[in-house]
Specification:
The protein has about 170 residues and is mostly beta strands. It contains no helices and nine strands. It is elongated and about 70 Å long. The two termini are about 25 Å apart.
């Protein structure tokens, strides 16, 4: 079964901060601290790189920085912040970046041969390849010049999660 796919094939590991993603970090108060949660409304897991700034709080996940939030999850627990010394003031803040997919996966089929993103028997000009001069610095992406209305298909089984419609 074929699915429509982004003409520019993006490697999951190089796409940071996509506008279409619905990811939210939030916290709830608990006795002597907070619990950190994430919401992921997308059809795919999202990897979050979390940078915590803690004052008199200890993080249950110690120095862990990367968390993978499963797809379609309204309240995924990231970890707990617990007051270190009861008599002292405590505060925290955080910054985060996120990307599509699970960046922690190390056991995957590295030799998989992907199909091209158009119907078999068709051919189109490759406009820009991996780490291109124009816009693909540090990206594993391919741009094809295709007439408007050309059918675009998935390069392998899966769910299409992003398309670009603003290019001519």
């Amino acid at each position: 079964m074929r699915h429509y796919l982004l003409v520019t094939l993006l490697c999951l590991f190089s796409t940071v901060g996509l506008q279409s993603q619905t990811i939210k970090l939030f916290h709830e108060k608990k006795e002597r601290g907070y619990i950190l949660y994430a919401t992921n409304n997308e059809l795919y897991p999202i990897s979050i790189s979390l940078d915590l700034d803690l004052n008199n709080l200890l993080f249950s996940e110690s120095d862990k920085k990367v968390f993978v939030v499963p797809a379609k999850n309204e309240k995924y627990k990231i970890g707990e912040l617990t007051v270190a010394e009861n008599a002292k003031k405590y505060t925290f803040s955080y910054k985060y970046l996120f990307t599509m997919g699970d960046i922690t996966i190390t056991n995957y089929e590295k030799s998989f041969l992907y199909d091209l993103p158009f119907l078999k028997g068709k051919s189109y000009h490759l406009f820009q390849g991996y780490n291109g001069d124009f816009s693909h610095q540090n990206e594993n992406a391919l741009d094809f010049t295709m007439p408007e209305g050309s059918e675009v298909v998935a390069a392998r089984e899966g769910i299409v999660v992003k398309i670009v419609k603003n290019n001519t």
